[in-house]
Amino acid sequence: QKHFMKDGDSWKNPKKMKDFSKEVFRRFKLPKVPIHYPRLLGKEAKGLARCIRKCGLYVVFLLGKYKEDIVDKQLVLERVSNAIIGVYTCIATISKIDSDLVLAHGDTDKLEQDLKSAKYYLNTTIKSINKSLRELSSNHDEQIESLSDCMTGNK
């Protein structure tokens, strides 16, 4: 990991500022999800790329916000893990169906059922990932924790 701004003079150094700016903006760029048949899987690949970027940004934000206390945030960790597992399974699914399309030379007739199943899975899982990530900032965690403490006698 690069540390561009270690000393006070770094802000005055144009080369270091340029490198720092590139590193910051790189994090906001959509990652590439390589596929051979973008006309068939382009929408799903772009949705997956957005999810990958959002997961990365949320993880960095949450680590900055909670630091070591993140290990005690079970509801937050559950949402992040659900989103990341969803990303992983989407990567596997899109990779498999894209490889099958390559082997079939793009002949969708041979893979009609598999392609429809994969697209359905990808679209529903991308929605689920986005829901998990949205719930990181809009949730009822305090109410859930208060109820849990009341029921278990912890407070």
Would you kindly provide a written description of the structure presented here, covering whatever features stand out?
By secondary structure, the chain is mostly helical. Helices cover 69% and strands 0% of the residues. It is built from five helices and no strands. Helix 2 packs antiparallel against helix 3 (74-103). The longest helix has 30 residues, at 74-103.
Q: In terms of structural class, how would the helical and strand content be classed?
A: mainly alpha
Order of helices and strands: HHHHH
From the alpha-carbon coordinates, what is the Rg to the nearest angstrom? 21 Å
Q: Work out the number of β strands.
A: 0
Distance separating the two termini: 42 Å
How many helices in DSSP terms?
5
Helix content: 55-70%
Low-confidence stretches: none
Query: Largest sheet at a glance?
Result: none
Tell me, rounded to a whole number, the average pLDDT: 88
Principal-axes geometry comes out as flat
Percentage of β-strand residues? under 5%
